[in-house]
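step 4 of 6: structure.
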Amino acid sequence: MSEPAGERPEVTADDVAAQVGRSFPGGEFTVERWFAWLLADAALEQPRASVSDGAVPEGSGDELAHPLLAWTAATQAMGVTWDELFAWFGSSADDGPMFGEHETVWHAPMRVGRTYLVSGEITSADRKSGRSGMFDVIGYAFRLHDKEGGAHVADCWNSLILPRRHS
Amino acid sequence: MSGQDDDVTARPGDDAAVARRGGPLAPGMRLPDRDVPEVDAGRMKTTAALLRDPTPIHWDTAALRELGMGERAINQGPLNMAYVMNMLAGFAGGHDRVRRLRVRFRGNVRAGDRLRAGGVVTGVRPGQGERGGETLCDCDVELSVVDGDPVLTGTATVALPEEGSDDE
C-alpha cells in the first residue's frame, strides 16, 4: 500500500526530466496462441475475429492477432517491469499511475506465432499541476520489428501520468 | 458475468458491420457504433495478469478506497483502446485494416459501466496496400459512458479495399 507521506525522498522536476532519452533495455515477445486468445477475450473480441482475408491454417504464422498486441508486446518486452519503470521516476503502482495518451501506427498486422523485437526510450517528462494536484507526464516510445526478416511492424507512443500525492 | 457472445453489437467480418460502399464514403459519415453492455471486473483481473500490471486500482477495491477513488475497479486504458479498435475493425472489415489510432484518455471507465464506441469519417484518400489499391479513411473516434461523458477521444486511420476489388 501507499507509503506514509514524508518517508519517500522528494522527486524534483529535474530528477524527472533527467530520464528523457533513457533507453529501455528492450527484448522480444512471441505472440503465443493462449496469450492472444485471452487478450482478445478480455478485449471483448472473438479470438479469431481479426481475420479479414479468410481462414488461415492454425500454426501457419499468418493468423492475425488483435491489434492491441502491438502495445502489449512492446510493454511486455520493454526490458523493465512496470514497477521498475515507475521507479525511474520515483513513483510506484500504489500512487495510481494512469494512461495519458497513446498512438499506435501499424505497418503490418500483428500475427499469432510471430516473435517481435522491441526497442524504445523515454521521449519527454514534464511536471504539471492540475485540479488533483501535482503530477508528471512521461512520454515513451517503442518500435516493433519482426524478428524473422526484420520488417518494421509497428510504432507505439504513450504518455503516462504519475500523480505526486506525496510531493 | 456476461458471455462474450452477448457483449458486442457487431464484429469484424459480420456482413452488417463491414463498411457499406453503396453510399458515399465521405467526411461526415458515421461509423457503426459498438456497445459494451457492461464492463466486467473479471476481465480486468485477466488483463492485469496478462500485462503483469501491478496497479491495484484495476483489481483491489481496498486500494481504490485508500486512494479516494471510489469502490468500483477502474478498467485498464488499453482495454478502452481495444473497444475502439474493435469498432474500427467492424467498420473496415477486419483488425488488419486498422492502420493508426491515437487517443487521449479523458476519464475513468469503471466496472459495471455501459460504453459506446463510435466515430465519424473526417477524410478519404487513396493509399497503396500490400495487395494493391486501397482507400485510407481518416476518422475521429470516441468512447463514452452511455448517458455519461466521453472517456476517450482521438483519431484513427483505417484502410478499405477499393470498390470492386477482390478484398471488398
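step 5 of 6: annotate
 - The beta strands of chain B are 30-36, 98-105, 115-129, 132-145, 150-161.
 - Chain B touches chain A through 46 residues (CB under 8 Å).
step 6 of 6: archive
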